[in-house]
Amino acid sequence: MKKPTPIRFITAVWCSILILAMALVINSCRKDIQLAGQQANIAEANPHLSVNEAKSWFAGNKTALANKIKLNSETSFLSKIADFTPLWDSARTAVDTNYYVVEAPAQYARKILFTTDGTSNINGLTRLLILKNKRNGELVAALMQIHGEPGVNINNVHYMAVPRNFSGNIFYTTLQGLFVNGNAYQNGEITFASRREPPAVEEPTGPQILKLPAPGGCEVRTIGIYEQTCYYSSSDVLEYCDPEVLLFTQDVTYCPGQGDDSSGGYSPPCPPGSSPAPPGTNPPPGGNPTPPIILEPLTINGKKAVRLVQGGDQGSCVINVQDTIKFCDDITTQQKATIENTIAEFKSANCANATLYKIIDQDGSGYTFCIKTGYGSASYSPTDKSISFTTDYAATRADILQHEMFHGYQDLYYPGGTAGYGKNSSTGIASPGFSNIEFEQAVFSDIVNNEVVAFQNGTPEQQTSYRNWLAGLTNDFTSYPKLTSGTTDYNNFIEQYTSFLNQFNNLPNNPLSGPIINLDPKALINLFNQTNCN
User: Fold this and answer.
1) Could you tell me what percentage of the chain is helix, strand and coil, using 3-state DSSP and rounding each to the nearest 5?
2) CB-CB contact of 465 with 142 (8 Å)
3) Is the pTM of this model over 0.90?
4) Which pLDDT does position 138 carry in this prediction?
5) Most CB atoms within 10 A, among 6, 121, 275, 423?
């Protein structure tokens, strides 16, 4: 039969993940925090990276980003992956541990679709991400590729907002389609992830090298990108599609469980706190040079394709070693040992504490620990990033450290920090937001420790109601809540949380009360969403 004249066509690019090889792997004490500074404003729009800033930066850098790898006549078709238009009017902001993010749908003249199960089932979309490094302000661009299992709605999947009913794959690529990192999901939980080995040293004294793991105990999956031309009638009715043509493949190591970024976010091989070893240059002692990017031309059924043999985006990284734990100059050797033991006890107490410490450790700025006279048992200062115990005994208490470490995490998470939400130690006047910060910390500790300390001065009815709420969130204190913005569970949580916050703020003789602001407990939600106890 003669082919009808195509009125228009869409070139569909499918991304298939095929398993090449698999090895079977089954896989307290109440304290006041002293904060100084002026009140900060919290806005839903991220003040650190606006949509307009992301749009302007991308417009000025798209050509360079799309040509990061120099293509020749045999690989020029890879430029199709970067041939899209961001829909900035539909953009949204997000934040993770390492980045401020703007996400915008990517509209292709040649629509991009994926398949991950070896069938012709198509269910995928692409989003552009502009990410701003929290530590150095560097901007990078990546593509978020989303593919759901048959019947799964992927339109409500966004960066750092994966619904519980999502099963499929989310992975991140460069603008030319080179794989960066990815995760496989079942019912909103990460089951497999691309992974890199951490340094094999406990206390590095100089630059170390991160290397990709060997496939042992993991799966090697092949990412394949295909092109297909489809023909439509003038009324947009699909007539037929030509057979798909393989354009690009790349082998990726996936391991059971979560990868380097347990939140499922963008996680390039060189995490914050490290940097790429310069390609082809001499590495630090004991390391290997970063390999250059090598693309190997292929011919499949008479059609040209390419295979990534090795890529600079998955090369070695030089870790910029910084001390997470530092001490005041006047602290004694015995006091240092005490604090180090308390930190070790805190990290090993539960997986939520471990995740909290990991987030702070990955930030790389570190905290200074002191023992000096002060108010209460301990305090965290966002001004100089220090935790001060008021007595040697307080420095032995892991529960006290947990309180202040969470305040340090809040300071790291919220845009602008928490210096504006303090309490004047001279006047005793709390700034707006002080009670928000303290109640969020109290809820974290009560969930982790199976307590009701937040309402220890409340009525028996309040204590019972509060405990029942926490028990419902945690399956009777056996798991941590996982919440996705916009869902019914999330909205119910915010409603109940706000009710208890108001009750907490009105408790009699509560030193942690103060003017409440409109600040949702997103630091708490983010931490539990990143915590995996498997």
Assistant:
1) 25, 30, 45
2) no
3) no
4) 81
5) 423
